[in-house]
Write a structure and sequence with these properties.
With about 290 residues, this protein is an alpha/beta fold. Helices cover about 35% and strands about 20% of the residues. It has an eight-stranded mixed sheet, with helices on both faces. The protein has a two-stranded antiparallel ribbon with strand order 5-6. Helix 1 packs across helix 10 and helix 5 runs parallel beside helix 7. It is globular and about 55 Å long. The protein starts with 11 loop residues before the first strand and ends with a helix. This is Alpha/beta superfamily hydrolase.
């Protein structure tokens, strides 16, 4: 037997980058294609919850970009923004970074822990726009007209916030299972204030799993907490609110919006499916 060794993600580097304004660093995963870039530069997909999505995204892109005539997917750059932790999430930091302002304070996740704060989305978005994008562009040739943003759950909420506040920051927006309900549907305030700029050309894809509507997954139906889960679903309305948002956005000049339901998926199991769809959306050949 050989000694076990780490299996790094092919073509991917990891960087811990602290905001210029101070604070804890972000762990940024960057996947770049091999070979020469197109004349206009590489398309790029920015992703929240980087620790949780980078491996899936790279695998999905690598497999499909090797056969573009059969997949409609070409090579591109993936920039997944996470945190310097071993697990898939840093719940405390992501609650703040992905929540639209003004935000609120909530009890700690565990006894003795710090309070949970939301409302840091503007600072996080500013970091992406004014620091991270220039950093990426200083290292790789990027096509600024083909940039996409993906987020799931709170990340999907963040993607909508970014669309409503900086609609030219990305061309394609993928909001999977967005937490539209959050803080009394705060994102609705930004939607109502949104005025599409002249010449806007944005593609927006919202999605949810089949079991994010008013039905439980089969394995949940007989669980002791089934009634409580149904009650929570009626409050959160992930599928219904995402459908409504997609229909609303589709009526705005300059936005092509749609909704997709992923069969047999729950809020968490839908993640790899949604990541694959983000790859297909961001790196579509035509």
């Amino acid at each position: 037997m050989t000694d076990p060794a780490a299996a790094p993600i092919a073509g991917t580097t990891r960087h811990d980058i602290a905001p210029a304004s101070g604070g804890e660093p972000y762990r940024v995963f960057v996947h770049a294609p091999t070979g020469p870039a197109p004349a206009q530069g590489w398309p790029v997909l920015y992703m929240t919850d980087g620790n949780a999505v980078i491996a899936t995204a790279v695998d999905a892109l690598s497999v499909q970009a090797s056969y573009p005539t059969g997949t409609n997917v070409a090579p591109g750059v993936i920039v997944a923004i996470g945190y310097p932790v071993d697990g898939p999430y840093d719940p405390l930091r992501r609650s703040c970074d992905l929540g639209p302002p003004p935000g609120q304070a909530y009890p700690p996740f565990h006894a003795g822990g710090p309070p949970v704060r939301t409302g840091g989305a503007e600072a996080f978005l500013s970091f992406i726009e004014t620091e991270l994008k220039p950093w990426v562009e200083s290292r790789l040739p990027i096509d600024r007209e083909r940039q996409a943003l993906f987020g799931h759950s709170f990340g999907g909420l963040f993607a909508l916030y970014a669309l409503f506040t900086r609609p030219r920051a990305f061309r394609r927006w993928i909001a999977a299972s967005p937490a539209i309900y959050w803080e009394d549907t705060l994102i609705g305030r930004y939607r109502r204030a949104f005025a599409p700029p002249e010449g806007l050309d944005a593609q927006v894809l919202l999605s949810a799993g089949e079991y994010e509507g008013d039905r439980l997954a089969p394995f949940q139906e007989a669980a002791p907490d089934a009634a409580e889960r149904l009650k929570q679903k009626a409050l959160i309305r992930t599928e219904g609110l995402a459908r409504e948002m997609a229909a609303d956005l589709a009526a705005i000049p300059g936005i092509r919006a749609g909704f997709e339901l992923h069969p047999r998926e729950t809020h968490m199991s839908v993640l790899p499916v949604a990541v694959n769809r983000a790859v297909q959306t961001a790196f579509a050949v035509r």
